[in-house]
Fold:
Amino acid sequence: MGEQRRAATPLTVCGEILIPDPSGALFWPAQAMLIFADLHLEKGSAFAERGVALPPYDSRATLHAMAAVCARLQPHTVLCLGDSFHDANAGARLAPQDQAALRTLTDRYEWIWISGNHDPAPPQSLGGQTEAMVKRGPLHFRHEPASAPVEGELAGHLHPCARLRRRGRTLRRRCFATDGRRLILPAFGAYTGGLDLHEEAFAGLFARAPDAWMLTRTHVYPLPFDKLLPLR
Structure:
């Protein structure tokens, strides 16, 4: 039998209850909204064009994972926080099967693409609407986090991850990063890496040191910043 997902522990941003999913997606029950960050569809084919040999199945794996989360959580709205496509031609490079799978998703849900630095204009032919920023209640959604603490902002772009020592082993995992006032989501795409929360890019973004909600296959574990391993 496969591993069972434990009931998720909610986190709050500006008083709103949000459910971090072990997949790396985020669910906002009050709005029935499912949020993904940094899919980077067709990153593999972009690297292949530059002579870097990567298996060409990253988009299919990412779309399959998205469809599974959507089926499990049954959102009304799906919002993608930018860099959903690795570059301006990524939509055209999607295999017909993958284009059809994506179009099935965008037809089924209210679908919002936030424009990112990799994809300022996501392809309209694949459905959904594109916005630079979206505001719902006390929360607003954008791709790149503002450079100073901002109340109610949810963003992606930085691909946060963290390290922990457990039972004599060092574990490095993607994570959600939050101080309760703003939240940065982990990258969801199959070929996306991670940036450690101790890196300079995170300095000054939070009003206090952020908690890391670290992902495993079946759980999300909240950990205070001082429990994380620093950079070497």
Q: What stands out?
A: The chain has a mean pLDDT of 93. The chain has four helices and 16 strands.
